[in-house]
Known about the structure:
The protein is mainly alpha-helical. 62% of the residues lie in helices and 0% in strands.
Amino acid sequence: MQKKKHIPKLTTMKLLEVENDRLSKNIVDLMLRNRLLKDQLKLKLKSPSLRRRSVAHVVEVFGVSERRACELLDQTRSTQRYKFVPPKGEQALVEQIVEIKANSPSYGYRRITALLQHRGWAVNYKRVERISRQERLKVLSNQPGAVDPD
Length: 150
């Protein structure tokens, strides 16, 4: 028969208190996460900019650190701190696109891309499409039932 080890009651109590503190922190973390997720479920966080705003909102409203908010919302901190730096010459390109659109409102991003490439710009259609969206430049389309005056 083996002897049972004698553990003093004081040590047992201390271990139980430490375990209780750890579990209490876990419960608080889970409750906070649950509250944050319920708050953020209203938003669809598809783009990094929306996720950045969401983390900033959580930091401001709930008073948690940025690190904690990023952890709770599954956002990497490098994405959170990223600052967009536009490429050189972006403003001149935007002005060119706006000018083309003002002269020919029916041109879409593909035709504008072709014109810019013909003028010597090294640009692809995705960049022109993105700039057109940002500048809210829409193609004028023919309305159904409208009669062309010939």
